[in-house]
Structures are given as C-alpha cells and as structure tokens.
Amino acid sequence: MEEIADKNSYGFRAKRSCADAREQCFNVLARKDRAKYILEGDIKSYFDKISQSWIEKNIVMDKQILHKWLKAGFMEKGEFHPTNEGVPQVGIISPSILNATLSGLEDTIKSVSNRKDKVNVVVYADDFVVTGNSREILETKIKPAIEKFLCERGLELSQEKTKITHIEEGFDFLGFNVKKYKDKLLIKPSKKSITTFLKKVRTTIKSLPTARTDILIGQLNPIIRGWTHYYKAAVSGGAFNYVDHRIFQAIWQWCVRRHPNKNKKWIYHRYFQRSGHKTWNFFSLKNNTELFKATSVKIERHIKIISSASPYNPEYREYFIKRDKRYPEKFMDMALNF
C-alpha cells in the first residue's frame, strides 16, 4: 500500500501524522502568491458505500482472503451485521483499504490542472482539501475530476458538506482552523475542537463530585496533555490560555460544591498552591501532583515529513533514524479522539 500511496496523503501511514498534513496546508497557502481558494472535500458514507467489486479487482493482495474479509460481516452489541456492500469502519484492514482506494486522487487532480492553477492536494484518510487559484478552476476542472474518480469506486462527494472557500474566510481541517489575516496565514485550534475538548473536561469533572483530588487530577491530566500536545505546533497560545481559564472555572465550581459552607480563602488553601510565579495551581498532597496546564506546553514548529519519504524505502533509512529522535509518535494524533 505504501508504494502506491499519494505523496501528500498522511492518514494511517507509518511515520506520518496530522501534523504533517497541517504543515503541508501551511506550505501551499502561506505565501502571498499562493492559491486563494480551497475545495473542502467530504466523501459521503465512505465505509458504507465503497464498491466491493472495485476493491477485489484493483487492490493487490490475496484475492481469496480479501473476498472472505469483505463478506465476513461484523458484530455490534451482540448482533451480527452482514457486509453486502462497503467495508466495516472498525475492520482491521479498513484503513489500508481506504488508502489504497484513494491512491491516485492526487495524480488525477494534477492531470486536469496546470502550474498556473496553483492546485495542491492534502489528504488525511477520507478528508481532503484542494487548493486553486480561483473558484472557477475548482468548480469546473477539479471537482468534476474528483467526482469521476470517486464514482469509479462507488463513491460520491457530499454536496452538502463539500464547499469552496476563500482563504480569508478560513476553513477547518483535522481540528485546525486555517485562515489568512491580512495576508498572514494562521493555523489555530478550531472553535469546534476547543468546545468539544472543554465539554469532555467538564463532563469528567462532573462525573467525580466526591472523588479525591488526586483521582480527579489523574483523570484530567491525560486529557489535557493529549489535546495540548496535538496543537503545540500551531498558533495555539491564545487557545491554551482560554482553555486553562475555563478549566480553572470548572475546577473552582467543583471545589465550592464540595464545601458550600466554607469561604474562598479556605477553599484556596485546601486545593491550590503557589508554584513559581503562579499562585492558582490545583494540586493533591496525597501524591504531590498538580493539574496539568495547557500553557505549560511550549509552542514548537513541526517539520513536515518529505512527501516522497517511506520508512520501507532503504534510501530513507538514515532520514527516519534522525526524524524518530525528534518526533516520537506518542502524542501525534491523540486529539483526534476528542
């Protein structure tokens, strides 16, 4: 699958991540002379509608095993569901099938455009964006080519969700908002991602009204740490300050509800301590732990993977040895779970 994958496809591939897809968006949109319009592609019911016959004819692997897997069905809540069409979304090889199915999309799009059109493609799983120098290019040349490519595979674009946007209006992609402000491109955590993240934090806090402080901190820290590490290479300083403030408000309300008859000073000394120049650090004496703060994460620029690089190509062995030291994959795509 790796050998046939598009160069700018970043989902479900070894050594690639959302951070690489985000940086490719920056590379093709940041300069003043770059494309001004973006086609936000959304494939309608990919896993439910993908053509099984196309998969069997075109994906190179043991045909008997592939056929059995396609027809195996799946269990959900104790009930068997046959797979007469499409593929199970949670199937163990479904991500590889997805990448193989969409391989060639980039070349197809490039084949109907020229350099002046400023067309670039960024793909992550079944989400993709295509840049273009004008709305007309994307509507009359690029979109029809994409629709034909997908139709051959039993797929189609969602007309409701697929749209063409000017870069100054901005667009959301993989939890990021990509937008130009007076010719300066900024990539920030999207409002939807921030809202979803804070909802999960508040839900966790409310679910533990009588828990010990160390238990609450133990539940919250992985959530906060994972989200912030996912966004640490974007323009996230403002978002990190905002979520820290909102989390503090939720924690304070949790403390007050536990001790309705105590004053603010008592609550502060019971649950908060000074750490360095910061005075409102939620902590636990039991194991001497503090609530992780988003603003404690340093903003660091991510260096995108070379588009043609593959860990299975011996030519890039030294390249990946050096890269693995810089970018351990622990936090790469963690925030996609939110």
Distance between the termini: 28 Å
Listing every helix as H and every strand as E from the N terminus to the C terminus, the arrangement reads HEHHHEEHHEEHEEEEHHHHEEEH
Instruction: List segments where confidence is low: pLDDT < 50 over at least 5 consecutive residues.
Output: none
Radius of gyration: 23 Å
Written description of the protein model:
By secondary structure, the protein is an alpha+beta fold. The chain contains twelve helices and twelve strands. The strands form four sheets. A four-stranded antiparallel beta sheet has the order 4-5-1-6, with helices on both faces. A hairpin with a 2-residue loop joins strand 10 (272-275) and strand 11 (278-284). Helix 8 (191-206) packs antiparallel against helix 9. The model has no long low-confidence stretch (mean pLDDT 93).
Care to give the gist of this entry?
Helix content is 41%, strand content 16%. With 338 residues, the chain is an alpha+beta fold. The strands form 4 sheets. The chain has a 4-stranded antiparallel beta sheet, with helices on both faces. A 3-stranded antiparallel beta sheet has the order 7-8-9. It has a 3-stranded antiparallel beta sheet with strand order 10-11-12.
